[in-house]
């Protein structure tokens, strides 16, 4: 069944038949929202996302609450969460101490957050890129040893607000070193949303040339300049089958001083389902969830699709 | 010179080196804005768009003012406009009476507005599709005889709010009959923004199979569901080189009850320039113009790129 059968489904050659969405709303989305939500609202959010059909939901972060006050309740959230078999709930873990906490709570998937540029590594991790890789090495090693999945984000892979253009060779080099730590998946982050499709294809080709399998690569686009879905289409044509998105477009982009950050999952679903690509996610349920979350946050969803489908609720 | 050299330019194979933008802000954009603007503001708008580098600017419409009060000043606008050599200023003309007025004012390019569906033809033109084609026939014939360029819009080419999915064969049939009237260009309108890239490619292929040259086909996407740029990318890959867009994303979509209608020219420029595709349009000047127009209208631009580049002005 198509989630928007009203307007038909037309496949396009060269695209995958199924895409896995990594839903990052509860972590990457909420951490950029200034209104701090109660833990029970966050738990309901995750549970609604899973009920809508998501199989990968990034739930929270063990980054120090000083940096991300919104996620200070990470342990309480995980303890309260009714989890579902077959669903992965990755948790961001910055260092070994974070890993210890995650392991103690029974977490089965973690994520680490690397940077392609020195500027962002310094600002976000208070380390050089080399130092951050040294910090991650024992985290990934121990996590993999314990049988966990480890996703690695590579931020500023398409441009950086301080360094501007980021050389492709630089991105490939850091990606390669991250993968060598033992990642199960690498997510390429267009943290400030400046990428266009040529750059996406060039980076994917360069990573594959370096020996990183395309099925280990996810894309994480921001819609700051409206480019996220065109970039997604270009990535799918190159064989990518995992796409990060945030329900309702939650999470602005603090570095571009814009309200528009993460690609909205609903906008992604509209594209994928119109192309006949299976995601397992119910668009209607997701829109309902995003409208509910917008009410919790007291601001409308920036998602085009949410706005179009619920003109009253989002106006 | 790239308009955003800061983040580099990466071409993508299979795309054209140059794209002509048909800027529809003054007509298609403003006609959906409820705040009626003074004629001098409209003239300045058109002149600023041309100063930014646009070579095709749809300026106004001779539709009866009862239907489009915003454009009741069409004649005054055209009389006041300082035109520039090498720039086309198409004017929407619904019937022979409108053509007479346009010719008397020295208009050199007109546009007609057809529908792929009976529902929209009835609501928008108060005619059947057959009757509308009969109405257009003498308009196109006389205009071409007088040496004018004639652009024909085909609305609801990808979906219709009343009929929902519109059969491809139906769209091809009406397109063929429109072209047979003698159009110099056919613009395929996704009036409610529901299209996805597979449908775009399928329609283009079907039109080319029917014998319509791809260089006569323009695309007119709406961003109601966030799909416009991905659809544009798919169309460019199929050889389309003329893309309609509206400065600042002006013009909501009344049929989808959404604030988001036309693809914003700035979002399009970000994509094209990032791909190394020449448009001749200066992004910075266009953003300034859209911020100025947003002030005239008293509401922020819905363009992602305008918002990202002017966080203070659009907040």
TrEMBL record, chains A, B:
Alphabetized PROSITE patterns for the sequence: PYR_CT (PS50991)
Domain Pyruvate carboxyltransferase per the UniProt entry, residue ranges: 19-287
GO biological process: ketone body biosynthetic process; L-leucine catabolic process
This protein's name: Hydroxymethylglutaryl-CoA lyase
Domain of life: Bacteria
InterPro entries associated with the record: Aldolase_TIM, HMGL, PYR_CT
NCBIfam families: PRK05692.1
Family annotation (Gene3D superfamilies): Aldolase class I
Family label: Belongs to the HMG-CoA lyase family.
Keywords, comma-separated and alphabetical: Lyase, Metal-binding
GO terms assigned for molecular function: hydroxymethylglutaryl-CoA lyase activity; metal ion binding
């Amino acid at each position: 069944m198509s989630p928007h059968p009203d307007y038909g489904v037309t496949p396009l050659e060269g695209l995958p038949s199924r895409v896995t969405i990594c839903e990052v709303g509860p972590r990457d989305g909420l951490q950029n929202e200034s209104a701090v939500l109660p833990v029970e609202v966050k738990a309901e959010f995750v549970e609604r996302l899973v009920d809508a059909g998501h199989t990968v939901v990034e739930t929270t972060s063990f980054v120090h609450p000083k940096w991300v006050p919104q996620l200070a309740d990470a342990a309480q959230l995980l303890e309260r969460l009714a989890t579902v078999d077959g669903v992965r709930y990755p948790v961001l873990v910055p260092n070994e101490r974070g890993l210890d906490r995650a392991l103690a709570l029974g977490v089965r998937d973690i994520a680490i957050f690397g940077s392609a540029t020195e500027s962002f590594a310094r600002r976000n991790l208070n380390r050089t890129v080399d130092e951050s890789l040294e910090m991650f090495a024992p985290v990934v090693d121990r996590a993999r040893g314990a049988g966990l999945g480890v996703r690695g984000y590579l931020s500023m892979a398409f441009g950086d607000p301080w360094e501007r253009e980021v050389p492709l060779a630089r991105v490939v080099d850091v990606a390669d070193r991250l993968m060598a730590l033992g990642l199960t998946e690498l997510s390429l982050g267009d943290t400030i949303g400046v990428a266009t499709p040529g750059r996406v294809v060039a980076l994917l080709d360069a990573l594959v040339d370096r020996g990183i399998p395309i099925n280990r690569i996810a894309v994480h686009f921001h819609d700051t300049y409206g480019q996220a879905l065109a970039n997604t289409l270009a990535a799918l044509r190159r064989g990518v089958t995992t796409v990060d998105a945030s329900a309702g477009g939650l999470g602005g982009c603090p570095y571009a001083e814009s309200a528009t950050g993460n690609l909205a999952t609903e906008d992604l679903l509209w594209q994928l389902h119109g192309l006949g690509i299976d995601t397992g996610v119910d668009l209607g349920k997701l829109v309902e969830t995003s409208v509910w979350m917008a009410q919790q946050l007291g601001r409308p969803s920036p998602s085009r699709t949410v706005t179009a489908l619920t003109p009253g609720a989002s106006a």
